[in-house]
What does this fold into?
Amino acid sequence: MNRTHPRTTRALAFMIAVAAAACTDSAAPRSNPGQTVTIVPLSDSVFESDVVRLTAKVFDDAGAERPDASVVWTVSDTTLARVGDAGSIALLRPGSVRVTARSGATAGTYDLAIGRLVAKRVELTPGDMSLGRGDRVQVDARVLGQGDRVMAGRTVTFRSADTLVAVIGSPSNVVGAPGFLIAVGAGATTITANTDGATGTAHVGVVVADTTFTLTHFNGAPLPALIAADTVTINGVKEFDEVYADSGTFVLSGLAQERYNIGVRFSQYHVIRTGDTVQRELRFRFPGEIDHGIVTVGANGGLSMLSEFIGPHLEHSATLQSDGYLVHFHEPGDDFFIDFTFRRNSP
It folds into this structure.
């Protein structure tokens, strides 16, 4: 049986004690019983969606501030607040959250009350609009809470006081996206935007700024122009019918954005031939909106016309003439086209 010499045992015990002490010093923070950590209170109230930056002051046991002391921030409830860099804290929802600033083994706390944002007013842009009939404008609404904080994600209901002057899109009135305004007639109206009891207003004035051109030729033929002739079945009886383009208009309108509208009236006749005699009985007449959209005027006075009626992308051109326009109506990827000749009718 081997025995360890008593002197060796004492040496091993001393070495183990030194190693344990060294390990303890490196793994645990040095205790500083006199050190304190204080979080500087905020001077103003804070609300959900705010990002605040807190400051912590660290003092040693003599009461001297340690400006270079490292501080780690935490919050008691991460559903209420989230810690960012250098003491910034994002406030997520109303409530009370405890903020802790820790330096070494010493910590300071601060109870932060997060207020609920309440809509105070709605700001509309643009706030004043001078439009021509046919103009389209997107009206944007900013909902503002306490201290003019912007409140995102709120449902805003728009309303026009006079829908004969302007109509506007809203969750209950699907004209377009919420706030999408269309000037429809001459006059003045007020647009209101409401959410959670807060209201904003904008003022709209609309004038008739139309220039109307009258259709004179359809694919080069003067009106009335025959555009189709075929055998059709009416009430179970076959007959030969003809369709004519009788009249039409090309209207340019708008001030904020020039727009166009092409409309043609058609007539369908039953053709009865008796020997050399031809009779035409009117079956019906029908107006047809051919297209409408946005106009871009070129340097030579010609027009580029982007359809909002036929999709996905249809663009026509119009050549300026002495008394009107020759509109070349063409569908991309197709040989189908129509040439409309329009003469200026009214200013």
Notes: The chain has three domains: 36-115, 121-207, 211-346. Residues 240 and 275 are 15 Å apart (CA to CA). The chain has one helix and 28 strands. Residues 211-346 form one domain.
